[in-house]
Amino acid sequence: MGSDHYFTATPASPEHLRTIRVTLAGQERDVTTAGGVFSPDRLDAGTAVLFANMPPVPPGGNLLDLGSGWGPIALSMAIAAPHATVWAVDVNERALDLVRRNAEALGLDNVNAALPDDVPDDVNFRTIRSNPPIRVGKNELHSLLERWIPRLDDRSDAWLVVQRNLGADSLQRWIGATFHPGYSVFRTATGKGYRVLKVRKHGTPVTEPITLDE
């Protein structure tokens, strides 16, 4: 990948398009990936842990895949909820092109692949599902979550998967302290070195930040 990172806006490295077979929403599907994006050769372990430990997606409304990469989370949500509108948000233009390519190949017309600033301000989400870009750095990650978590609908949840040795527990504490009042955060699962965090936006404020494990 050279000097590119998966969060590079316009990767300069060669695309090297490839086809891989992955399980999306319980179905084996062929998808196109490329160099210069996150985990181009396989479904990454963190996303697999998230898939195994999250509830079904809401059947309608706006759903957000934050940091979509080539699109495994967004595509899975679009397959599972054909009447929902799925937003695949990333800063990597190549990744967004792959999401569009894969959505078209899979016959999914309910996926919007968009840069962060291209999501209308009045769009809120019935759920957020994300393998967030931890390696962008703590400040950038915190800014990312501060921007998008408040856009959950009331009584809706964000599900995040974070590698334990890359700061999952400290991120859980930060979320609990930052999104207060009105939110709670729980660790709902641990597997293969990853934590799955559930962030709940309540309809009414709670009196204290909650950072419990279920």
Helix content: 10-25%
Which stretches of 5+ consecutive residues score pLDDT under 50?
1-6
Q: Quickly count the helices.
A: 5
Q: What is the second-level CATH architecture? A: 3-Layer(aba) Sandwich
Cα shape = globular
User: How large, in whole angstroms, is the Cα Rg?
Assistant: 16 Å
CATH top-level class: Alpha Beta
Q: How would you summarize what this structure contains?
A:
This protein has five helices and ten strands, in the order E-E-H-E-H-E-H-E-E-H-E-H-E-E-E. The chain has helices at about 45-50, 70-80, 95-105, 140-150, 170-180, and strands at about 20-25, 25-35, 60-65, 85-90, 110-115, 125-130, 150-165, 185-190, 195-200, 210-214.
Write the layout of secondary structure elements.
Layout: E1 18-24, E2 27-33, H1 45-52, E3 62-66, H2 72-80, E4 85-89, H3 93-105, E5 111-114, E6 125-130, H4 138-148, E7 152-163, H5 168-178, E8 183-191, E9 194-201, E10 211-213
Parallel strand pairs: 3-4, 3-6, 4-5, 6-7, 8-10
Antiparallel strand pairs: 1-2, 7-9, 8-9
How would you characterize this protein structure?
The protein has 214 residues and is of the alpha/beta class. The protein contains five helices and ten strands. The model is unreliable at 1-6 (pLDDT under 50). Strand 8 and strand 9 (194-201) form a beta hairpin. It has one domain (18-213): Rossmann fold (3-Layer(aba) Sandwich). An eight-stranded mixed beta sheet has the order 5-4-3-6-7-9-8-10. Helix content is 24%, strand content 31%. The chain has helices at residues 45-52, 72-80, 93-105, 138-148, 168-178, and strands spanning 18-24, 27-33, 62-66, 85-89, 111-114, 125-130, 152-163, 183-191, 194-201, 211-213. The relative contact order is 0.14.
